[in-house]
Amino acid sequence: MIEMNKPGLDSLLLMPKIDLHRHLEGSIRINTLYQLAKEIGLDITSKSDLSSKVQIHPSQPYNLENFLSKFAFLRKFYQSKEIIQRISQECIQDAIQDNLKYLELRFSPSALTSSNHFKFEDVISWIIEVISEEVSNSDLIVRTIVSINRHEPVGKAELIFREASQFKSQGLMGFDLSGDEANFQADPFVNLFQKAKKENFYITIHAGEWGPASNVLQAIEQFGADRIGHGIRVMEDMHVLEIARKLEIPFEVCITSNIQSGIADIVSKHPIKKMISSELKVTVNTDDPAISNIRLTDEFAYLNNKLGISIPQIFLISKNAIEASFLSSLEKQRLYEHYSSAFSLWQKKMYSSDR
Questions:
Q1: Which of 67, 205, 220, 334 has its CA 20 to 30 A from that of 57?
Q2: CB of 131 within 8 A of CB of 106?
Q3: 8 A C-beta contact, residue 282 and residue 253
């Protein structure tokens, strides 16, 4: 594989990418939100006023409470089918613009129905419909994951599961347990996720983000997690780390999100390099690109320019993501062939421009 000088943002924008951990609710354009705020009558004085409510700013505290407060405010916007489909459409457009080749987009039916009386199945249908339309003229492949909030009742989660299960043939591949890991236990949801696993859905669990490494172990052993969302605190427990390494459990690492939510102090202190050197199966993702005001391009720029992760290493991270994707073996092989071809072409172009 060709090595090159450190590419700039413009070059990295052209690099093909894979994102396994992106929340729809955290991917809404600020311009769209500002327009919608005026249309639905929210008391917003300016775009900067809105930005302070829905995006993380350096002047704000980097902690769990501030990060999650953005989602609480965003729930005010989900007031119609048209709005939900618009934000879904624009999310896919932004992924294409960032040169993603594969995206697993997760969303919370509970959040998206919080300002209305829509059925969970209707909201899921609207999102899947618009995604299918939007990717039809691109080479982006999108699959969806339904997020279950650990701070909400299990009964609601069970209803969401029943209504979401019917969309498996339409690209809904799995279920995610998300939300406030610091203050809410995962235990009440074990039976539901075991049921999902038995019905051949994939499982990803937010664990070892705001909670200890033992949560990663619980996700693996009790939930049957195929992947771990974030999981960077696995580095605090060598026993759990060794189990994850031996089982080749993929980790959906989100660098900027981890910093803005107070888990890591600064980019240079993020444990991703140690995770890689510990032979964990690491992937790199955005989490909530609009809230964090980033693209996946920016995350790879941090990796390359600030952490010294080489271009060949970045390719291997993307290969990890393909292998960890919720696709069939044949689909993974086809995606890998397409991705590696696009990556090689990008490298050759960048190498030529560096000479």
A1: 205
A2: no
A3: yes
- How far is the C-alpha of 335 from the C-alpha of 250, rounded, in Å? 18
Spatial separation of the C-alpha atoms in residues 191 and 202, rounded to whole Å: 15
In a domain, 2, yes or no: no
Closest CA to 270 of 230, 216, 315, 214: 230
Q: CB count, 10 Å around CB of 108?
A: 25
What predicted TM-score, i.e. pTM, was given to this entire model? 0.95
Contact at 8 Å (CB) between 98 and 284?
no
Distance of alpha carbon 191 from alpha carbon 209, whole angstroms: 22
What averages of pLDDT result for each successive group of 10 residues across the chain (355 residues)?
64 97 98 97 95 96 94 96 98 99 99 93 98 96 99 98 98 98 97 99 98 98 99 98 99 98 87 97 99 98 94 97 99 98 94 64
Which residue do the tokens 């690109």 mark? 289
CATH of the domain at 220: 3.20.20.140
* Per-residue pLDDT, 115: 87
Number of domains in the chain: 1
Domain range spanning residue 126?
9-354
22: left (phi over 0), alpha (psi -120 to 50) or beta: beta
